[in-house]
Amino acid sequence: MNVYGIIGWPVSHSLSPAMHNAAFKALGVKALYGLFPTPPEALKEAVSGLRALGIRGVSVTIPHKEKILPLLDELDEVALRIGAVNTVVNREGRLYGANTDWLGVYQALSERISLKGKVVVVVGAGGAARAAIFALKEAGAEVLIYNRTLERAEKLARAFGARAFPLEAISRAEGDVLLQTTSVGLKEDRSPVPEEVLSRFKVVMDMVYQPLETRLLREARQAGCETIDGLTMLVYQGGEQFRLWTGLEPPLDLMRQAAEKELEEQKDGKF
Ligand code: NAP
């Protein structure tokens, strides 16, 4: 039985076990995916533990995505350029770090709109925004970053060839796509974007998936925009992890169903 899991802090509400275990079961892969809660001070030991115990692969989440880089044996070129790893593959004892978050963003958006030459407004400048901006620039989009802390947006803009603005200027923003990458709206009925701005965009995507339809997405739908929820990205990035670990085609529909079911159960307090 091969063992996979997720390292992060906290990880108890992760949808990844439901998603990956459903995929393993459906394809008859003899593997299990579990939770490895890892406090920041234990990251180094946890990574040694992956080698020692022969854990075949892990997802990496907040707050370890950047700190794990120097602890790995080999890095994918894209993970290095983004500066974050969300996937580790154990290749006969050597730990290989990759990033599938950017592919999650790319696939979620590009199945709805061709990004080449489009103007994309990114709200937020944290780790998730970094992977998203890499994807958007790869796809040939023009990127405008709006963030509460302007310096953080400016740093990202310099790294990826984008433009930076303070979050207060969002009321004047316009473009083809609006991509929300902050944690605002997570388990709360708040949006970082004023409602009247939304009709200026064709497509609005939120990385937050709890609730599935955030206030931003509800208001965007009411304004006539096409909307993409955060679970779409989560499933695509998880699918790419599954492909890296098993070499198999990920059963994406089934992974989405499992993640949605888990989300519902957590909401109902059965968890
Ligand atoms: P992070 O590195 O901590 O960045 C957080 C971002 O949110 C920063 O831009 C921060 O602005 C902004 N922010 C936080 N509170 C705010 C507030 N009250 N008002 C305005 N801006 C605020 O976190 P992250 O890793 O980028 O993750 C961000 C969100 O994306 C999380 O909710 C995470 O769950 C979600 N996510 C989803 C997926 C998916 O697959 N759907 C993947 C990755 C992440 P400052 O710079 O000013 O602090």
Q: What is the compact description of this entry?
A:
The protein has 271 residues and is an alpha/beta fold. It has helices spanning 16-26, 43-53, 77-82, 101-110, 127-138, 150-160, 215-222, 230-246, 252-267; strands at residues 2-8, 31-37, 57-60, 74-75, 87-91, 94-98, 119-123, 142-147, 163-166, 177-180, 203-206, 226-228. It has two domains: 2-99, Rossmann fold (3-Layer(aba) Sandwich), CATH 3.40.50.10860; 103-230, Rossmann fold, CATH 3.40.50.720.
Which SSEs are present, and which pair or pack?
Blueprint: E1 2-8, H1 16-26, E2 31-37, H2 43-53, E3 57-60, E4 74-75, H3 77-82, E5 87-91, E6 94-98, H4 101-110, E7 119-123, H5 127-138, E8 142-147, H6 150-160, E9 163-166, E10 177-180, E11 203-206, H7 215-222, E12 226-228, H8 230-246, H9 252-267
The chain binds NADP nicotinamide-adenine-dinucleotide phosphate.
